[in-house]
């Protein structure tokens, strides 16, 4: 059986594997031949490395053109010409013309420029590994000519580093930190990668009831987990007790994560905690989270904006009733808006809220949806109108946490019931 180029290449790699090295390209000339999809994938990493990139190609994808317009690289709008690689340290050949690729590759060989070829890896002098990064660590994987396996191995390693399942101890002493981490709407898969990594590095986690609770079971045994709802308050208000706990553990030199539901700065009182830490001279990192105001409606099939239906959405807290003098919400103004209204923490006040919106001119037939336990296994959706929502909440036993969506978008989405065509023939 005749040996194919692929099998010959694989055999060569087995006998002489590639020598891995990290190129320091900052300020050094790099030439990319071809402006198609391959270049589009490779260029951002070259720019991030600080390379002085010149693109030689008669055309380019819109994304590559945007990089040129942003001043991230220079573009010679023409085909490859002899001498284009002069002074280059590294070349990436991605052109669709095989003759141009061969000529550019031959120039790279003569000029001793390391050269990657997307059309013929066997003729290249360098290969691009499957690369990933996690908090200062670069993972590069080569498996000969099996790019899918390279990518799979890379992904497994990077995910392990990010989630803390692969131990990568620092040889230098780790600097303690305080982080306000948004855990997202509840599903543990919806926390950010950075938030999950900081959790894995924490000594103390002060967690909210609405945070992704399942992640707490994954923490090592030495991590102290504090339920924010059960901190002994004594003479302090609940929030003040949480602030004091953050300060106490931070001053003791521990790495502290304040794990909050949704986003720390969307009705999460995160700024109060950041200010309390700053008053004690303690810096903190804020890790944004996926807000339930958008993610929970989306999980229930409700778009908060939709072309031709809603060009805006407004998020308000419903924990204070409209007639309460402490309310900071202008319900009259909200009633005049034509977009979507998303109400958080308003289950027990929704009857009064609906009445206020109707009193200020909102159509009583406006659709309303309540999404309880959004993104979690117990998620359920209850639909109503402004006129009926107060009764529906009681009749259906809707309990917090629930996100309330008011507006015509409730009738949109893939979960809406099919509309029967009155003109359709009946059998």
From TrEMBL:
| Enzyme Commission (EC) number | 2.1.1.107
Give UniProt keywords alphabetically: Methyltransferase, Porphyrin biosynthesis, S-adenosyl-L-methionine, Transferase
Q: Which residues cross the membrane?
A: none
Q: Which domain of life is it from?
A: Bacteria
Gene Ontology biological process: methylation
For this chain, one GO molecular function annotation is:
uroporphyrin-III C-methyltransferase activity
Enzyme group, top EC level? transferase
Q: Which SUPFAM superfamilies match?
A: NAD(P)-binding Rossmann-fold domains, Tetrapyrrole methylase
- Which intervals hold domain Tetrapyrrole methylase? 178-389
Task: Indicate whether Phosphoprotein appears among the record's keywords.
Answer: no
Return the NCBIfam families for the record: cobA_cysG_Cterm, PRK06136.1
Record-stated family = Belongs to the precorrin methyltransferase family.
- What name does this protein carry? uroporphyrinogen-III C-methyltransferase
């Amino acid at each position: 059986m005749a040996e194919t180029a692929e099998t010959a290449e694989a055999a060569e790699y087995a006998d002489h594997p590639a020598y891995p090295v990290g190129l320091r390209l900052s300020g050094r000339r790099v030439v990319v031949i071809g402006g198609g999809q391959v270049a589009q994938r490779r260029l951002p990493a070259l720019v991030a490395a600080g390379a002085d990139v010149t693109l030689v190609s008669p055309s380019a994808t819109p994304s590559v053109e945007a990089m040129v317009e942003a001043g991230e690289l220079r573009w010679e709008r023409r085909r490859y010409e002899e001498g284009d690689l002069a002074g280059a340290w590294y070349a990436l050949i991605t052109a669709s013309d095989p003759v141009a690729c061969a000529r550019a590759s031959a120039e790279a060989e003569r000029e001793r420029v390391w050269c990657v070829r997307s059309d013929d890896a066997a003729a290249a002098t360098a290969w691009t590994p499957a690369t990933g990064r996690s908090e200062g660590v670069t993972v590069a994987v080569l498996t000969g000519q099996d790019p899918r396996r390279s990518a799979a191995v890379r992904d497994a390693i990077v995910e392990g580093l990010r989630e803390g399942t692969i131990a990568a101890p620092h040889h230098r002493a780790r600097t303690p930190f305080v982080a306000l981490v948004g855990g997202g709407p509840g599903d543990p898969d919806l926390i950010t990668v950075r938030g999950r990594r900081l959790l894995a590095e924490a000594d103390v986690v002060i967690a909210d009831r609405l945070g992704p609770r399942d992640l707490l079971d994954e923490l090592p045994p030495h991590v102290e987990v504090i339920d924010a709802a059960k901190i002994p308050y004594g003479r302090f208000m609940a929030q003040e007790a949480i602030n004091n706990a953050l300060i106490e553990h931070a001053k003791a030199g521990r790495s502290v994560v304040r794990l909050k539901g949704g986003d720390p700065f969307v009705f999460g009182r995160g700024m109060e905690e950041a200010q309390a830490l700053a008053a004690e001279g303690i810096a903190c990192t804020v890790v944004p989270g996926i807000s339930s105001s958008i993610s929970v409606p989306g999980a229930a099939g409700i778009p908060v904006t939709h072309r031709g239906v809603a060009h805006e959405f407004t998020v308000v807290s419903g924990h204070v009733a409209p007639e309460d003098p402490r309310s900071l919400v202008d319900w009259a103004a909200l009633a005049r808006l034509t977009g979507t209204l998303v109400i958080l923490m308003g289950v027990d006040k929704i009857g009064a809220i609906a009445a206020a919106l109707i009193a200020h001119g909102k159509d009583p037939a406006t659709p309303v949806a309540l999404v309880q336990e959004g993104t979690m296994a117990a998620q359920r959706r209850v639909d109503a109108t402004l006129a009926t929502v107060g009764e529906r909440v009681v009749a259906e036993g809707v309990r917090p946490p629930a996100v309330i969506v008011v507006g015509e978008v409730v009738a949109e989405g893939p979960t809406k019931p099919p509309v029967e065509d009155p003109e359709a023939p009946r059998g």
